Amino acid sequence: DGGITQSPKYLFRKEGQNVTLSCEQNLNHDAMYWYRQDPGQGLRLIYYSQIVNDFQKGDIAEGYSVSREKKESFPLTVTSAQKNPTAFYLCASSMRQGLTGELFFGEGSRLTVL
Amino acid sequence: DQQVKQNSPSLSVQEGRISILNCDYTNSMFDYFLWYKKYPAEGPTFLISISSIKDKNEDGRFTVFLNKSAKHLSLHIVPSQPGDSAVYFCAARGAGAGTASKLTFGTGTRLQVTL
Lengths: 114, 115
Fold this sequence. Notes:
By secondary structure, chain A is an all-beta fold. Chain A has strands at about 5, 10-15, 20-25, 30-35, 45-50, 55, 65, 75-80, 85-95, 105, 110-114. In chain A, strands 2, 4, 5, 6, 9, 10 and 11 form a 7-stranded mixed sheet that branches. In chain A, strands 1-3-8-7 form a 4-stranded antiparallel sheet, with no helix packed on it. Chain A is globular. Chain B is an all-beta fold. In chain B, strand 6 (about 55-60) and strand 7 (about 60-65) form a beta hairpin. The interface of A and B includes residues 40, 97, 103 and 107 of A.
């Protein structure tokens, strides 16, 4: 079955610690994305990558870092510099120059900072 | 500056009736508009989209209408079913992201379909 796998589904972190969220896709999509959802807010774009070894900042990149060493993988690191990291994180992918702009989403990872 | 707005945080509709979810946008450069459905603790799933050069797109019970002059789109669900109860997000695709599909999302509308 093709899809996007995010892990872990739930993660707890102490303040001051970095944490890495995993995102793997087997859809052979070129582009991958990280979004963040907070209660009562829409999804906000953190980072996106059009191709391996390339990525761009989204609207709220501060305190986050990403890498794209393989086409299938786009991990997100939430650093201690992120002031309000507790949120639901969503990874997505899309076809290169997809006609309709459709993104395919993973199931999400909920990060809670204690 | 919120470029995509969903002004109704919630909507309750009886089963079998029509659900109408609304979305407004400010950026005239958006070229595609999409609707996603989301259940709690899950990722959003794609429902339907419309190109900025069209004014209507239909897929089964779901129809999206686009009014470019008013910068407004709406999603109609007819007839509404209890399984449609979820949060619906409007999204718009902007230019300038190369081959990526950089979507801007609204804040969502929670639809509850009652028996």
